[in-house]
Structure formats: structure tokens, C-alpha cells
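Deliverable D5.2: sample structural annotation.
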Amino acid sequence: MKNKINKYCSSIIDYKRWPTREVMVGDIGVGGNNPIRVQSMTTTNTMDTKLTIEQSIRMIEAGCEIVRITAPSIKDAKNLKLIQQGLRKSGYSTPLVADIHFTPNAAQVAAKIVDKVRINPGNFADKKKFEFHDYSEIEYQDELDRIYNRFSPLVKICKEHGTAMRIGTNHGSLSDRILSRYGDTPIGMVESAMEFLRICEDHKFHNIILSMKSSNTQVMVQAYRLLINKMANEDMFYPLHLGVTEAGDGEDGRIKSCVGIGTLLEDGIGDTIRVSLTEEPENEMPIAKKIAERYNGGLNSPFSNSNVEIPYDPYFHRRRKTFNINNIGSDNVPVVIADLSHKDKIKHDDLAPFGYLYSKEEDKWHLSDQAVDYVFIGNNDADFSLPGTLSFVQNYRSWNKNSPHFPLYSVKDFANTTVKSSQLNFIYISELKLDDRLIEVIKNDDTIVLIHESDYDYSVMIQRNFVIEMIIKNLMNPFIIKRKYNNDPNFLLRSSIDIGALMIDGLSDGIWLSASQDISIVNQIAFGVLQASRMRISKTEYISCPSCGRTLFDLQETTSKIREVTNHLKGVKIGIMGCIVNGPGEMADADYGYVGTGVGNISLYKGQEVMKKNIPTENAVEALIDLIKEHGDWLEPSIV
């Protein structure tokens, strides 16, 4: 009997690409020994041949290696031929992909024209009615037989014409059948894809790429890992396309994409990527190219033994078990530490970039939702009282026991002094591995929080390995990541990956970022990474699709309008979807939804339940506010 494979990557401490077969998409190889490919999707009406060609060219010239175009009908699918011919006449041989939802007949037409078709197993053969069904085994098998008969014609056409296929599962559009059996889970996402993949295998069709997209980065990462493990146990090694769906726009969309995509690429998972932004598709290319370049050159690990046993569940998010020290560790949200040690004297106004505004007239502090928890002041001190949510950290030689601040030590200094806080002591370390000296110092001491700094490009592997050693040694001291990015033009990208990858697995209890950028921007990115990894919510979250030819309103303009009036609603998640395909399902775990349901018409959702239908666009934003008020989640901006 074959032994079950438990792995989801080649190594968690030594960068190695997960081995996959090569799949040709036109002249572009995906998987195997090929570099990580970058792709995107047009936002034009597919029937507007000229505009679609022009936008495709802008995407290609920006670095897009594979262009995806929606084909919502047979008519659209046929028009892909004209688009393809126009691009070829203009000298572009970039592969084209037809994006299919609900229309198997359109997929069959497109498969004879383009280089790849993308189908969503959640809606290829099923209509979503949000109904629960208690299937018997026989009834479920009957459903699988129905899907086999519905899907097989497309598989045969792809095989005959040499057309590649992406089986692209989306967290928010799982079928009622999958939801009834597996729930709204990463396992359900994997099984949704595997049902279709097994049909392809039965037809001996292997020109397949898979994806497991979600707007929730934790769900996305878990689903891809589960998929790899599932495929490996069935001797399947198909390449993977990575993406965080409905990531949003601006800084938030970029951070969220880096967290989700980067976490997987750090593990050697992923053969092609798309950064889905609610912006023009060519704007996705710079960040996508930078992400791919980070890994196409490879990462060198200092560790020789890559066969490390994982002492936590990589398929289910759970925080590492730690002491509760002050407000650090245990069930506390990860803390944020800022740095003012470069200042000669600390003043009230120095705290403004970190979320603390002092009113001299009122003698009162005003806190933002992105107020840090600790500020390192080095050898300095302050002659004013701090708000109760903030503490200073000093070098231990400048600290005394009567101080309201907390000391920072090296391992050697902590071991050789008796001057310690009875409540909270920080120890700074930068070692690659956990050594006996540190173990002896920290074991059984529930006042010690470790701050670990790494300057390596592969810091995720180093700091993850350090935490793994702590788990194995049953050391429960909280662990804070420290990273410095001086004069780094890729600060947002690198910090999102370096911090986000460890947060996704619940391995860190806080972050300390420093960079040459403005300190308020550094602080903003720190909180952005925590939000993107679903570890600390400090602002409104927008789950906004990147637009395509199905979109029924201007997504960028509408997202901006909605953001303008709701960005003070901390912790509220708002989905903004251009059409019903990316509607209540794709919003996944959004609290409220704004969905295009017809030209000039919007429907509003609470969760996945439609609450108001066919509202004229000009009244829809106000109606959304009214809906939020009706359910008790609205606060007036003046009192936030």
C-alpha cells in the first residue's frame, strides 16, 4: 500500500520550486523549469474588438505574458478570433485565454480559437441557488456523472486542438453541491477542482493548470497547500496559477496580493501569477513582475538540512501557543513596535505618525485605529505622560525599575544582570538558530518577549525555522519579527511577504519595521500587512474585483466613491462587484455587497443574501449606507 504524502512543498527552510509538469500555453511554457509567468485580464467589452486589442497591447508592453479575456457568450467567444488576428497582425504572439463562467457552449467555441480556456468548476455545470442538499452517496455519484457528461465535450476539444485549460476554483463561487458536502472551506475548494481534474485524467488530457483563489489570504494559502498535497497523493503534479481574487486597489490591493502570493512563492509553490487590482490591468504588471523576479533568481538558504518536520498544521490557521505577557502573545492581536531612538528628545508631536495626536488645549490624546503599541526610544526618555495604550521601550542600561517603560536586552546582558522588569523584558536576537545559551536564558521565564531581526532576503525561512525550533523545545515566549529596509525601493513588496508569510501561519506575535521611507508610511504598511493577513483589523476592508468585460459600471470610480464615505468603518468588509458572476459568491466573507445586476442597476447584499434589488446606480451608494445603518454597523465619521 502506498504511503500517504504529508508534504505541500519541497522544503519550508530551503527555497526549492515544487516540481510540476510543463504545460504549453501557446508558445509560453508554464511549470517545469520555466520561470514564474506573469499574466492579467482585459477589462474591455469583448465585443469591442479595437478597444480589447489596444488594451491587450498595453498589457503586453507592460510585461504581461498571458492575456485573459472574458467570453460570457458564444458571440463573445467567436469574437476572440478577430481579437487574436488583430494582435497577430500587430506583431504580438502573446497567448490568449478565454475566461468562462456559466457557459459551457462558449467554452467549446473558444477552445478552438485561443491558447487556453479557464473554467470555474463552481459554475461550469451548476447554477448557484444557495440551497443545502443532503446527498446520499448514490445521489452524489449521480451528480458527478452529470458533471462528467457536461464537462467531457470541452476536455475532448481541448485535447484535439492542443488547447490548455485552467481549472480555476474561487472560494466565493463554490457550487451548492460542494458547499452541502464540504462547507465553505479550503477542502471544499480543493474537491471542487479535483472532481474536474479527475475527469481530465480519465480522458488522458494533461494540459492543465489549476488555481485556488480567494479574497481571504489565509483561505487561499491553505487551499493551495491542500491541493498540492491532494494531487501528490494521486501522483499529479500540475502547475499552479496564483492570485488573491478581489484584492482591491492602491496600497491595500498590492499588500494583500503580496501577502497571499508571496507566502506561497516562499514555499516554492506557484508557476504563474496575477495581481488582481481594481485598476487598469497594465497597472498590475510592475508589482507582478517584481514579485516574480524575486523568485526567478532563486533564494539561497543557509540551512543544509531541508527535511524539517512541521510541528504545526499548515492547512489550518492557528496561532502558536505563547505566554500572555502584558498585551503580547496568547490571544492578543499582534503588536506593532515603532522606532524613535534616532531622536535626541522625545516630544508629544513625535508620536503623531504612529497614531497618537496630542491636544495641548485639552491635555488629551486622540488615537487613530492604527496606533502602535510600543515605541523604542533607545537611550532617550520622555518628560510627559503616555496614553494608556502605549508603552516605551528603552535600552536596559538607560532603564530603571521605577520607570513606566520596559527594557530591551541582548541575550548576554540579560543573563548577566539582575536589573529586570517583573512584568515584561524584551530580548533582541539575530541568530540563525536557537542555541543552548538562549534556551537556558528564556526557558520558563514568562516575562521575556523575543525580538528577532534578520537582514537576509530569505528571512521568512530563517525566522520560521527559529520559531519551529522554539515549538519543538516547548518554549512559549512571544516572538516578534524585526525587519529593516533601508533605501529599498521594494519595501512594500518585501515587507508584505516577509511579515505576511509568518502571520498567515500564526507564527509571530508582533512586528517592528524600519525603513528609509516616511515613518507614517512605514506604520501604515505595518498595519496593512496585519490586515491583509487577517491578523489585526484596523480599517474598513474592500473586496473589489479587478473589472473585466462583464463589468456593468465603472469599478474604479465606484470603489473610490464607496471608500470615501465608508473608510471610517473599522472592521467592516464591503464587496464591490462589477457583475453577478463576481457577485454574492465571489464576495465570500464580505459583510455587505454592492453588485452590478444590469446596465445602470445595482443590487445590495448583506452577506450572501440580496436585500435590495435593481437600485439605480445614482442612488446606490446612499442605499448602501442606509443598509449598513439598518444592520447597526454604521458610525458617523465625526464620532469615530
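Annotation notes: Residues 210 and 240 are 5 Å apart (CA to CA). The mean pLDDT is 90.
The annotation will be released with the project's public dataset once the embargo ends.
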